[in-house]
Amino acid sequence: MLTDCLVAAIQAIYVFHKIVVSISRPSSDSFSHHMSIFYSLASDALDFFTSYHVYIYSRSWPTISCFVMLLQFRMLLVSLAETIRKHVRHQRIVKHINDSYPEASKEDLLRQDSCTICWETMEKARRLPCGHIFHELCLRRWLQQDSSCAVCRTALSLHLSQIA
Ligand SMILES: [Zn+2]
Ligand SMILES: [Zn+2]
């Protein structure tokens, strides 16, 4: 019961946080990424704790509750692995962008002032080796799905298979 309330509270906080972030600070991607990691770790831990609690107090069907407990434990591990994989992937993409793509110069921004991914104007951008420039945040999201330039499809040196 207590853990149910905690899970609901965390979910409510998370949804509220998502709304606030999306309204007020659309560029705070890192912060919202870390919140989402924290949220999934916290809700995994609470889910697991809830089933453990049920296991401890339901002595009438020890075999079934033990089986459910094992299933729950397996789900916890799968979910944890997915969360860690997502986090590692995010960190590597951030590092890859910082290491490989310099900030766009004033001339670059004069030549192309809107980002081809979101069509918003750019005050700061990152330049790919092919010369195309994008918002850093847009590039980060793009690279989660694709390892080529969003405009000319030039292959980038980001190896998603190594990250996945
Ligand atoms: Zn953009
Ligand atoms: Zn390009």
UniProtKB/TrEMBL annotation:
GO terms for biological process: endoplasmic reticulum unfolded protein response; protein K48-linked ubiquitination; ubiquitin-dependent protein catabolic process. The keyword Nuclease does not apply. Keywords: Metal-binding, Zinc, Zinc-finger. The keyword Metal-binding applies. InterPro entries: Znf_RING (IPR001841), Znf_RING/FYVE/PHD (IPR013083). Residues 115-153 form the RING-type domain. One of its GO terms (molecular function) is ubiquitin protein ligase activity. SMART domains: RING. It comes from the Eukaryota. Gene3D superfamilies: Zinc/RING finger domain, C3HC4 (zinc finger). GO terms for cellular component: cytosol; endoplasmic reticulum; ubiquitin ligase complex. PANTHER family: E3 UBIQUITIN-PROTEIN LIGASE AMFR (PTHR15067:SF5), E3 UBIQUITIN-PROTEIN LIGASE RNF8 (PTHR15067). This is RING-type domain-containing protein. It comes from Panagrolaimus davidi.
